[in-house]
Input
Amino acid sequence: MSDQLRPYVVIVNNGSGCIFQPMDIGYSYILTAKHNLLDEGDQLNMLTRFEQNGASWTAREIPFQPLALGQNYFPHPQLDIAIITVPRIQGVSSIYRSDELNEQMNAGYALLGYPATRRQANLANKSLWFRSDAITQIMGHNDNAREFTLAGNANQEEVTGQSGGPVLILHQNNVMIAGIETNMARAFGENMGRAEFFPLTSFDEIIDQNPDTLCQLLPAHLSCFSFLMDEAFDLDAGFSQDNIAGIKAFLLDKARSVTQSGAAPHIIKKQFAKRLLIAEQKEEILQGKEIWKIWLEFITVMQIIQDRIIAEKDLEDLFNTVRLLHSDSDKDWSSELSNIAYSDYLGLADEGTVVISTRKPPARDDQYIIDGNIPLIASARKTRERHKLKINDGKIFPFDHYKFVHMDYFKGKSISRKHDEYSALETDQEYLDKLKLEYGAVFNP
Output
């Protein structure tokens, strides 16, 4: 696991830091402890990252300019944290935030950095300075910081040099950062392997104080749907792929208009937040690509149905008439039935439509559109926990009032599985008429 995390961990003077790729594609941010720079007179003398080459690691010096406050150096006014901006570092993909921390979320996190003990033992070989220490427990808040316990009860001498190092976890092949370590726990005479880190919300305060220079600590693909064009409408017709080549090109052309409409992922995320997700899904999903690829496809479909461009000003109306709810589940959507029932339907219009997206299409061809007559739903209605429902006054149960359709209906069901019906189509008008006919089964029954 540490091999996948190590490319993000950098040497910052006598301490450590972490590369974060923000929405601004011109820059990379180095998140670190402020005292790594203060101890050197607010100077940056060493900034090094490592690239893996087979079984070995090669040091790469990161180009940087002399630190200039408010230009490329942004220390927090009170907390021991800072952001350094450098030209965009290539070859390091997005790193996601791990904000939903609690005392039960301990397994898998590690503190990574370049401790002084490793440096002193290998003065001439920086690649041997790296160390990853397992975290056994993340505890509650200590002012703005979080306390955690390192395996083996490491003391101050063993941790020196890791200040500024990230607390990372690898989750579903995504590198996620919980925060930046700055010091051992503050209790006098108490070590017990306990240290402190500042979560990303503390770095958000630096962003808020420098809104004209820094951008949000979110991946670049949240800035614009254009970053997701290569992944949109991944239609698969097997040996008959040529049959749908034309309709795929048509859909991608329609999707390009979404990228120019002003309706960007970060705007949708800010406006609706966790309401975009099926109940019990982690909010961290909103940083990934999957949900926003689906939103790009969803808005494209809605523009075809409604014969209009859906801009930022139209998002609230869209959300209240056709609501897209996402789950990262890779199981059949029937397994999410209970969570779907307790998702957020507040504000959804009478006779509204709910589009459910999961990573896997429905198991049965006749279950792309469902209603309250399915026995499993009838059973869920009888046993519903009424206090958990998020539904408009006067409504009893979501499945009694709204139509539910799986997002793959608009791709797999309507296109891939009917590939032969698209092979003879040639003009944009023919493609448009065909899609309106297929999608009309949902919106104009």
